[in-house]
Amino acid sequence: MNRFVLVSLCAILSMQLTSVSAQGPDQPNFVIIFADDLGYGDLGCYGNPTIRTPNLDRMAAEGMRFTQFYSASSVCTPSRAALLTGRLPIRNGMCSDKRRVLFPNSGGGIPASEVTLAESLQEEGYATGCFGKWHLGHLPQFLPTNNGFDTYFGIPYSNDMDRLNDAAPKGRGAFLEPKIEYWNVPIIQDLEVVERPADQTTITRRYTEHAVDFIKKNKEQPFFVYLPHSLPHIPLFRGKEFENHSARGLYGDVIEEIDWSVGQVLKTLQDEGLAENTCVFFTSDNGPWLIFNEHGGTAGLLKDGKGCTWEGGMREPGIAWWPGKIPAGQVSLELASTMDLYTTCITLAGGKIPDDRIVDGLDISPVLFGEGKSPRETIYYYRGTELMAVRHREWKAHYYTQGAYGADARKRENHDVPLLYNLHHDPSERFNLNKKHPEVLAKIEKLVKTHREQLKAPASQLEIPL
Amino acid sequence: MNRFVLVSLCAILSMQLTSVSAQGPDQPNFVIIFADDLGYGDLGCYGNPTIRTPNLDRMAAEGMRFTQFYSASSVCTPSRAALLTGRLPIRNGMCSDKRRVLFPNSGGGIPASEVTLAESLQEEGYATGCFGKWHLGHLPQFLPTNNGFDTYFGIPYSNDMDRLNDAAPKGRGAFLEPKIEYWNVPIIQDLEVVERPADQTTITRRYTEHAVDFIKKNKEQPFFVYLPHSLPHIPLFRGKEFENHSARGLYGDVIEEIDWSVGQVLKTLQDEGLAENTCVFFTSDNGPWLIFNEHGGTAGLLKDGKGCTWEGGMREPGIAWWPGKIPAGQVSLELASTMDLYTTCITLAGGKIPDDRIVDGLDISPVLFGEGKSPRETIYYYRGTELMAVRHREWKAHYYTQGAYGADARKRENHDVPLLYNLHHDPSERFNLNKKHPEVLAKIEKLVKTHREQLKAPASQLEIPL
């Protein structure tokens, strides 16, 4: 063997070795697309009559569509904290009874002691990028690049915060006829403000372009893309190409642009030959914001929306796509939660779930691969620090019920005998069966007792002033 | 050419000619599958979380799913009369303000002067079969075989009529824990009662078997199969194979058996090589019967159900399937009605629409074939003989609103300024815009004026005693 052949051979071997270790079948890529305030009934494949979502419908047809998939809270900050830590917000201080989410005048954020999904995957050699709305603290120590992400581009909190009271009309008018200049929300690149106010008409497109670029740049190593769109949170904005795109009006335009974004991500994965090694999951942080008339979405047949613990507040579309791994065209009735994405992704990446704390996420890969049932049997519905309701299998017991927003939110009912619904038979929570099934209530009461005994709730991050 | 060759050649030619004339591309077969009280939100592909409908979902994926498809009435008899005559029930006496449907003690039925879809197709050389619930009169002159069908197997009216008060518990108990022996509904074969009481646990299977046999027997000529299932009308029954089949409970079992039935029909058409020449349409007569708790279905995000003129009462799933003719995987937002099936089928069969009367049905084949928009722009919502609401394009004006059943049904509101909803933006009819759009109300008022001027309402068939 001459020297040239030997060198060539070594080069080829080393390329292959690099390729195997960096992008081996044991380390799939992950893309989590997280909409903001999108309801259970807002997609074509979940029954919406006038919003067209061909890309999400195709994602469902080629993958798995969950019908009983939950976010961990009915509002933004706690829901996002749970997704990225695999833990109920009550365990990490990311909820409060006084302020439901973080605001521009908040001084708190995601505690350093939490191990985020991005940190775990970074540890396993993943490239990690976050493109979109963060809302886990806007001070530098709380931002994505200090919490496991290599890079970040997006807004630090909701798109209706930093309202400019001189520029915007008073009351709801600013929301119902929105203009960019009514708000002063910044766009942050890594740790720097690069634009203020954010041009929200181009924001969905720009998040998408950043995500696509990141995938292309990092295709030789495993990667995690977190793409938390800041829409359809109100105020609604969409790009020029999506003006009057939807029969549903402005709200539909916004959803159809997000659907386009999903199509771009899937196309990139397919064009780059990455589809068979990438798990994509689409869901939303909480239900639709119903108080804003046609600017809010719909939870379909589910009761109520964002801000409350009826099903419409926390049950979400959930679509998983991974050609060749997730069987095509499946509708799954299995119970699952955003927190399960944490545990499932880390497990599939070969990482370790933190064992010095309670992690609520469970590994749902048997469901995804069509190999078994979900390990999840229980959903805890918190409002702030209060456990309002508990679902165990098909049964949901409401200890308290309370309206979502405005005057309704002050109407709180305490149910000495909890309301009880069979969500399989009665998804709209219409028929209380608590007199008929005391044994179910007893079983749920036991679960609650154990849950409370194990619970250590730290001080709230949401109440810390700037 | 010797005599043998000549005879053989003639035989072959004549077979081909027969085959072309009997089953030519100009005369497609039609199968209309009509469920009873199935709601807009009751199928998987319309967003139901716990009812599995893989066959209907496949039918939609291979065909066209309508999101704005309407029955012509919110109750049974008038809805069926409209489907089979292409005319609003107000035009043919098949509605009334005193009795909303026909009963076993009714003496009326479908007038002989009406030209049914079956009669028109029979005229064009079609074999015609009806397998299921009729409900257009149970006296001989009103039965299917005297109104255009070659053969009939099914029940003459609803499955909750002919209640045996000695056998059944009083009140709602009979409906909520149904047994076959509580009702004395007959099964009629052509004109003869062949079974009484009908064994409703096997009824969906038997309708299906009759339809499948009919297709196989008539495959050499054009055929029309009308398969109006008598379920999921309450009381609910299903076959042994479907007991505990569905996570949704008894109601889900019933829908999943109907889904199985659809699968059998499609499979038969494919096995017999008839799929490319057969148009199959699935829909329902009216919305879900909500007063019977978990025994009733759901209209999803639409308001209310059976018996009223809110959207849940009359908007229905509508799925069209015709491989090679109807493009696959389409979701159509076009407006259409069961009455349009009448006109479309007769037109495609080469028949003539009666021109001595007003026919409300329109030819929607351009929509089906992906070639154009729907000619339909208006939906009239009648309750009995009263025009309650009118939809024009995306706008719906309510002149009167009234609850569906029970005490609610006695609460009627007259709207001097009609309520106005944009159904594209607001499918759940939540945001009245009548103050904002007087010009739309004026336009609709004009349509109503013309409609009323052209209207000749004959005496009601539903009020004729036995």
Task: Offer a concise description of the structure.
Two copies of one chain form a homodimer. By secondary structure, the first copy, chain A, is of the alpha/beta class. Chain A has helices spanning 3-22, 54-62, 76-85, 89-92, 117-123, 173-176, 203-217, 250-271, 311-314, 338-348, 365-368, 406-409, 438-454, and strands spanning 29-35, 64-70, 127-131, 151-154, 187-189, 192-195, 223-228, 278-284, 315-321, 330-332, 336-337, 378-383, 386-392, 395-402, 412-422.
Count of beta strands of chain A: 15
Coarse shape of chain A: globular
Tally of structural domains of chain A: 2
CA(first)-CA(last) distance of chain A:
69 Å
Give the SSE layout:
2 copies of one chain form a homodimer.
Chain A: H1 3-22, E1 29-35, H2 54-62, E2 64-70, H3 76-85, H4 89-92, H5 117-123, E3 127-131, E4 151-154, H6 173-176, E5 187-189, E6 192-195, H7 203-217, E7 223-228, H8 250-271, E8 278-284, H9 311-314, E9 315-321, E10 330-332, E11 336-337, H10 338-348, H11 365-368, E12 378-383, E13 386-392, E14 395-402, H12 406-409, E15 412-422, H13 438-454
Parallel strand pairs in A: 1-7, 1-8, 2-10, 2-11, 3-4, 3-7
Antiparallel strand pairs in A: 2-9, 4-5, 5-6, 8-9, 12-13, 13-14, 14-15
Domain Sulfatase N-terminal (chains A, B): 28-350
Cofactor (chains A, B): Ca(2+)
Signal peptide (chains A, B): 1-22
